[in-house]
Amino acid sequence: MKLPPTQVAVLERASADDPTEIDELAAQLDEKPETITGAAFALEEEGLLSISERSEVTVSLTEEGRRYVAEGLPEVRLYEAALSAGADETPVSMGEVLGSADLEGETVDIALSNFARKGYGAIEAGEITAASDVTPEADEETTALTAVADGESIEDDLRERLESRNLIETAERTHRAVTLTEAGVTELMAGVEAAERVDRLEPEHLSSGEWEDLQFAAYNVEADAEAPTPGKRHILRQAAKRVKEVLVGMGFKEMQGPHVDADFWINDCLFMPQDHPARTHWDRFALETPDKIDDLPEELVDRVERAHREGVGEDGDGYHSPWDREFADELALRGHTTSLSARYLSGEQVGDLEPPQRYFSVEKAYRNDTLDATHLLEFFQIEGWVMAEDLTVRDLMGTFTEFYSHFGITDLRFKPTYNPYTEPSFELFGRHPETDELIEIGNSGIFRPEMLEPLGVEADVMAWGLALERLLMLMTGFEDIRDVHGTLVDLDFLRSVEVEY
Ligand code: PHE
Which helix (DSSP H) or strand (DSSP E) does residue 42 occupy? Predict the structure, then answer.
């Protein structure tokens, strides 16, 4: 029989009568114990050796433990000092006893709590009384500590007590020993030779004919291996990709446009009054340089301004609030991607559009929100709109029902809301798979004439802004948006989660 050299050496040194310790074999063969253990396990697998194990707990003193072996346990020193001061007869002042026991700092607390625990006496109103019926010379913790110092073994309960006082440390080690099996003896008698063991076949092995005598290492397919965590597409990007595929499948075209845009496109075109709270610096990330856009389409600006001031239609009415051209020119990070819808609907982006039309984008929007489990300073918005004749709320609901069904989300709820640019308007809710709570997943509505007329759109337009992160929450069940975005992300979650559809 041919075996790798270490295995041959172990086999030859093992006995059929008495177990031989692996440590001893390692010393004899001048190998690491791990190497010998590996060889022994391989031989055990072959049935040539049996392995026996025993575990040994070694106990050693900590630094603090060593100090008390030399100086005595603090509570014992306190008791002895109290006794010398006559505290077994009349209470003595604490300060005096501590001084003569030479106790200070945190040792004082240790002394006091153990003094009380062991019933050495009582401390009341700054005075100490010593019990007269205790014999600190026989303190079992002191005895055990000295035993450990002398390398002797101690009782389990004392070991635990000293360990919890941090005076000793224990370490457990497994010792293994090998014994030849009958098969091992038989093989040894038949003759065991050392063979070189290789883990791969090389061309030279074949050309030299050496392969015939080589021992090949077997693959252990059950061995624990490190799980590789290579780079992968972030789940938000995976989800964005999937959303795009679904919307393209539903006949939508993708919109593109600037992250930084004029307030005109972000808000004025949406019939958002200039004094609307969302347009203040509280919500908005304004740009410092450059701070103004220089190419707004003038005619459109005039029409938008007129809608704000006078409203549209026969009985239209405006906001009667200030409208400042300077503000319309100001640049900011877009607070929603509805700025893209305004650009596309106006004809500025891809020319005038004839109904029917469907457009979408899955892009970042930025808001100066307070960070919490559901709000970030930036998020991905799934923007979309459909331009057609005679659209109704049913069309809007049907579109959402179809869209979300692609992601397995079927329990949608609608709640009327208010947006300056849509009428009617609906917030959209879905049920969180873990918490069962209804969470808001989007906002939508049918664009108002005050918005569409200045943009030159005659057909109806239904539109929405949905949060990609919220969609993902419903799909994967995570509960805190900071698990997937930002510096506190849950890496294990990101590594293991897949967007399934
Ligand atoms: N802009 C809205 C938001 O950010 C979403 C929306 C878009 C609502 C279009 C209605 C119509 O919440």
Answer: helix 33-45
CA-to-CA dists, residue 199 to 136, 205, 218, angstroms: 66, 12, 8
Tens of pLDDT, residue by residue over 432-486, are: 999 999 999 999 999 999 999 999 999 999 999 999 999 999 999 988 888 888 8
Measured between alpha carbons, how far is residue 401 from residues 170, 233, 407, 409 in Å? 63, 27, 10, 8
3 lines ligand 1 (CB under 6 A): no
Upstream peptide bond of 273 is cis (omega within 30 degrees of 0): no
Cα–chain-centroid distance for residue 217?
Answer: 39
The total of other beta-carbon atoms located within 10 Å of residue 362's CB is 23
Which helix (H) or strand (E) segment holds residue 144: the answer is helix 140-149
- The finding on whether 463 has its CB within 6 A of some atom of ligand 1 is yes
Q: Is the pTM of this model over 0.85?
A: no
Q: Given phi > 0 = left and psi -120 to 50 = alpha, else beta, which region is 135?
A: beta
Q: Whose CA is nearest to atom 5 of ligand 1?
A: 465
- Residue 121 CB less than 6 A away from ligand 1: no
Beta bridge partners of 129: 122
Q: Is the C-beta atom of 444 inside 6 A of ligand 1?
A: yes
Evaluated on CA atoms 177, 183, 187, 192, the torsion sign reads negative
Nearest to residue 49, comparing CAs of 28, 19, 27? Answer: 19
